[in-house]
Please model this.
Amino acid sequence: MSDPILQLRAISKSFGAVHVLYDVDFEARVGEVTALVGDNGAGKSTLVKCIGGTYTIDSGQYLFDGKPVAVHSPREASELGIEIVYQDLALCDNLDIVQNMFLGRENHKGVLLDEISMEKAAAGALESLSVRTVKSVRQRVSSLSGGQRQTVAIAKSVLWQSRVVLLDEPTAALGVAQTAQVLDLVRRLADQGIAVVLISHNMTDVLQVADKIAILYLGRMAAIVDRKDVNQQQLVELITTGTSTSVDLTQSSSSAATAGTV
Model:
């Protein structure tokens, strides 16, 4: 098994008197999908924003490629190779696919935009993920379905050679067919050698595509388990109570804790 490309050790985060994360351990490995799950208020969004540099951690260690790093902004996270695809996708409806994928990072030839190289790169990113649902990279985003929009947002991470991609609820509000397409895309993303972190409330999606599942409970990492070791009922139990009598948690993160120790 490869070493984690992203590793957090004993991460804590507070907002004034409100303590949100308590000594959280987390890791993501190349070629794997790690699902991050937990009930509302468990701390998922805060943890993701700490990884992405929106929030600065109060204490603990942030390692990337085995080396301690300090991430104080989204730009610094991006420079490491970390891309976050938020639920709102941050796509501009009035721009086409190429313009969205290169927004703020356009190629230039002299003082003019290099439209040809950007078109080729955008098409190549979609092709590398075996995307067949997009007819033209010059389609306006406003004309795309929800699943196609997710495809464009995910393909951006391939275009910019991201090494860790965090996907925030990528199948929310999608139909059955579009959900299947996006989950297939998530799997292909990992198969390309990218460490994928999937944040989701949909247990069916998580169990279908994840290799490992990290469960947050009241700001603590309750467990990090292999997908093959849990079923849906056990996963729901871990999410709602922070523990399970039927799951071996001895191999979980050393920071795992139950409600009784919060």
Notes: The chain is about 30% helix and 25% strand. The CA atoms of residues 41 and 218 lie 7 Å apart. Residues 253-262 have pLDDT under 50 and may be disordered.
